[in-house]
Amino acid sequence: MKWSSNFAYAIGLFTADGCLSPDGRHLNFTSKDQEQALNFIKCFNLKNKIGRKAREKGKIKKYYQVEFGNKEFYNFLCSIRLKPRKSLTIEEVDIPSDFFPDFLRGLFDGDGTFGEFNHPESQYPQLRLRFASASKQFIRWLHQEIKKN
Q1: Domain of residue 33, CATH code
Q2: For 46-89, how does the pLDDT look when each residue is reduced to its tens digit (9 = 90+)?
């Protein structure tokens, strides 16, 4: 696979909101945001349609999803340390340092938030960026990589 800014961004999106099927071939990207699904398709040059789905026990189809099968791409994602059921077990992702900012942008678009707050001492307004993950190891790695890069 050839790294580019768009490719690294899409890897960030997939790291946040993607899923590798245990079958070793199929991939799924799901987002509440239709624009994110469109971005994902564009970055990977996919021709797939965007589907809709509900939560497991829900009836309202408010999520946008892209599903596709590609064994070579699946293996590539595994080679950079993504894996099935990654939410709790992801530790780090092997991203070339030149493309880490693009990866981080995609990760933020998928699992990031920002908010304004007043500093407790100076009371000046500040912005706080946050990343969500169920894996402490991934958050620690991400923090180190942000400091390093």
Answers
A1: 3.10.28.10
A2: 999 999 988 777 778 889 999 999 999 999 999 999 999 888 88
Instruction: State in Å, rounded, how far the first CA of the chain is from the last one.
Output: 22
Residues 6/109, Cβ–Cβ less than 8 Å: no
Q: Looking at residue 128, what is its pLDDT?
A: 87
Domain range for 83 is 5-148
User: Can you count the helices (H) and strands (E) in the chain?
Assistant: 6, 6
- 130: enclosing H helix or E strand: strand 125-131
Cβ neighbour number for residue 72 with a 10 Å cutoff: 8
Q: Which residues contact 75 (CB under 8 A, 6 or more apart)?
A: 24
Concatenated DSSP letters of 87-107: HHH-------GGGHHHHHHHH
Start-end of H helices in the chain: 5-17, 34-43, 71-79, 86-89, 100-111, 136-148
Q: Into how many domains does the chain fold?
A: 1
